[in-house]
Each structure stands twice: as structure tokens, then as C-alpha cells.
Design brief:
By secondary structure, the chain is of the alpha+beta class. It contains two helices and five strands, in the order αβββββα. The chain folds into two domains: 93 residues; 68 residues, no CATH class. InterPro entries: MT1774/Rv1733c-like.
Length: 198
């Protein structure tokens, strides 16, 4: 009856670059610092980038909401019965509308309307500071979602850049280490081979 022995995996040694070890080279300690600095920069950079981006987006959307004014307009012509190829994803259609500005100027443009609405029906349009028609501004909840999403994206990008930069530096260190090993082996290798030939 044969028994199989389980081979033990070597235990992973944490923080080996920081421990005293005769085989540890100065480049190993440098690599340890690069790893620490890379992760700190990733964490701090991600938090800062996320915060700054989210605040900037929130401020921009708040300014857009402040500039946009809802204005009552009327349909100049009947809205199409069914959304055609120019129909919108929310089921509305484009229709020609007319509205009067606060200074008395009458303007016309295309606005969203429910399909089949008759001429003379009232619709709300949004105008900018100079009376031009603008898209409806996002609601506060939409603005919060958009600023959070863009902030998180900027944070992930900043973290990825920091970690990727640290990884590139470590790759350069590995190449340098390999060159050093080659140089050392070219000096020691011939002596080693003489000893083994005996």
C-alpha cells in the first residue's frame, strides 16, 4: 500500500525587502521604496483626483442649471403622430415651437413634444442667458450621479497611472539587475567552470 506525501509549498515571506539579509542588495531596498511610494501616490492621487473632478463637474452643472431658464412655449404646428427616424429615445418627437422672451422678442425653434400634440399646445423649453434654446439642465440627483461617476473615473485613472508608473520603474530596475548579474557572471563564471572541471 503506497501513500502519497503532500509536498509543502514554500511559505511566502512578507516584507523580505526590509529584513536584514546578506543576499539583499541596495536595489532591493530601492524597489521596496518604489512600491511603497507608488501605492501611496495611487491612494492619495486617486482621492485628490476624484474629489477635484467631482467638485469641478458639480460646479459646472450647477452653473448650467443657474443659467438655464424654463420658458413656456406653444407648438406652431402639430407634432408628428409617431416617432420617425428623428424620434428620440424617450418616445418624444421634435416639433417647431414659438416663445416670447422677457424683452418681448419672439423666437422659434425645435423642442421635444409628445407625439400627436396639436398646434397651440403649451410646451416648456429651456433658454440660456442670451435667449438661445439650450438642453434641459440635469436635475440635482442627475448632477450628483454624473459628478460621482466622473470623479470615480478620474480617481481610477490617477491610481492606475501611479501604479503603472511604479511598475515601469520596477521593470527598469529588473533590467538593470539582469545587466549587473550578467556582468558579475562574466567575471565569476570562468573561475567557477575551472573548479567544476577539477
Amino acid at each position: 500500500m503506497s501513500t502519497t506525501r503532500r509536498t509543502r509549498r514554500p511559505r511566502k515571506v512578507w516584507w523580505w525587502r526590509w529584513r536584514r539579509n546578506p543576499l539583499r542588495r541596495p536595489v532591493d531596498r530601492l524597489e521596496a521604496w518604489i512600491i511603497v511610494i507608488g501605492w501611496v501616490l495611487a491612494l492619495v492621487g486617486a482621492l485628490c483626483a476624484a474629489r477635484v473632478t467631482a467638485d469641478a463637474v458639480a460646479d459646472g452643472l450647477a452653473e448650467r442649471r443657474a443659467r438655464a431658464e424654463p420658458v413656456a412655449a406653444v407648438l406652431v404646428e402639430d407634432a408628428p403622430e409617431r416617432p420617425g427616424t428623428e424620434g428620440l429615445t424617450d418616445g418624444s418627437v421634435w416639433a417647431k415651437v414659438r416663445w416670447t422672451e422677457s424683452d418681448g422678442d419672439t423666437r422659434t425653434g425645435l423642442a421635444k413634444a409628445q407625439p400627436g400634440r396639436r398646434a397651440g399646445s403649451s410646451v416648456t423649453v429651456w433658454t440660456g442667458g442670451k435667449g438661445e434654446m439650450v438642453a434641459a439642465p440635469p436635475t440635482p440627483s442627475q448632477a450628483r450621479f454624473e459628478s460621482a461617476l466622473l470623479g470615480a473615473s478620474a480617481g481610477l485613472l490617477a491610481a492606475g497611472t501611479a501604479v503603472g508608473g511604479a511598475r515601469l520603474v520596477r521593470i527598469r530596475l529588473d533590467r538593470r539587475r539582469l545587466r549587473d548579474w550578467e556582468r558579475e557572471w562574466s567575471a565569476v563564471g570562468p573561475q567557477w567552470s575551472r573548479r567544476t572541471k577539477g
